[in-house]
Design goal:
Blueprint (H helix, E strand, L loop, with lengths): L2 H16 L2 H4 L30 E4 L10 H9 L4 E3 L11 H21 L7 E6 L1 H13 L4 E7 L7 H12 L2 H6 L24 E5 L16 E2 L2 E2 H9 L12 H4 L8 E3 L13 H11 L2
Helix pairs in contact: 1-6, 4-5
């Protein structure tokens, strides 16, 4: 380990000790928040099957509902009803617990809407990208709901991410504009010491994980250039790729995605060769489809 890495670790430890109490304390969940699906509806195709569970799509860190545009087409073509989530509480940079609170009402509304349209509605499926998987895990843990049959997490840092540790060290001591750049407080939920990564299994739900085994030498179609929140993700992913001595998507290592060691209902689905910001493409959908439309 080089000197720079020691400095990063030292700063990370100091930053953790200086985190505000509400960041470090165990999360609790509140009930009654109002929220809805993107555009307020469960989106349906004319060929939607009444025997397929509705799917709730949850985006990740520094993302919004638009990241699911490809999947929305895939779901429509397969007759699978869906809800693309936009959170009202700081959509791109909000905390896992705030988003978990909103999921209580989102799931209820999806079930109610589906029932009104004679679609199987006793349960829903959830598919989540990146931090969205942590939002869903907290919701499932704290609510104890029976309403979610399957949670598919794609590129979710279930064990946290050392890159988030380093970034949060700078964000804590930075000016407000830098905090906006690092998209806090969501960033803190991605660290290796965050409370949300310890969310317990909901025994009524099956958990699935998909990670990206990417390489910068692969064709650019596996990782097109994406610019979001003033960040050039392609360059960032190429830079961090060599940080991990294991399969990774340029941002999250495979071991973190798969880190659900005490979960009895966890299945690792096959990986793809996409980078983190391209993990919501056809290969991932084709793998998830075996769960969403068995």
């Amino acid at each position: 380990m080089n000197t720079t890495k020691y400095v990063f670790i030292g700063i990370s430890i100091v930053a953790l000790l200086l985190l505000p109490t509400n960041v470090r304390s165990p999360f609790t969940i509140a009930y009654g928040q109002s929220s809805s699906c993107y555009n307020g509806l469960v989106m349906l195709s004319s060929s939607a099957s009444i025997h397929v569970l509705p799917v709730i799509l949850i985006h990740g860190y520094i993302e919004d509902a638009s990241v699911w545009s490809k999947w929305e087409r895939f779901l429509i073509n397969n007759g699978i009803p869906y809800c693309t989530v936009t959170f009202q509480s700081d959509d791109s940079c909000g905390t896992a617990i705030d988003h978990a609170n909103e999921l209580i009402q989102i799931v209820k509304k999806v079930k109610d809407f589906a029932q009104q349209h004679n679609i199987m509605s006793n349960q829903v499926n959830i598919v989540a990208h990146s931090k969205g998987g942590l939002d869903a895990r907290v919701y499932l843990d704290q609510s104890g709901t029976h309403d979610v049959a399957n949670l598919i997490m794609i590129g979710t840092p279930n064990g946290g991410d050392v890159l988030a540790d380093d970034m949060s060290s700078f964000a804590i001591f930075a000016f407000s504009d830098w905090e906006n750049f690092f998209c806090t407080p969501a960033l803190y939920d991605l660290t290796t010491y965050a409370d949300d990564i310890s969310a317990q299994e909901n025994i009524h739900t099956n958990y699935y994980t998909i990670y990206g085994d990417w390489n910068p030498s692969l064709p650019k179609i596996n990782c097109p250039a994406v610019h979001s929140h003033r960040i050039d993700w392609l360059n960032l992913q190429q830079e961090f790729f060599l940080t991990f001595n294991e399969p990774n998507d340029g941002i999250v290592p495979a071991s973190s995605v798969e880190k659900l060691p005490n979960y009895l209902h966890h299945t690792s689905l096959e990986p793809t060769h996409d980078c983190h910001t391209n993990l919501l493409s056809k290969p991932e959908f084709d793998i998830a489809k075996q769960v969403l439309k068995p």
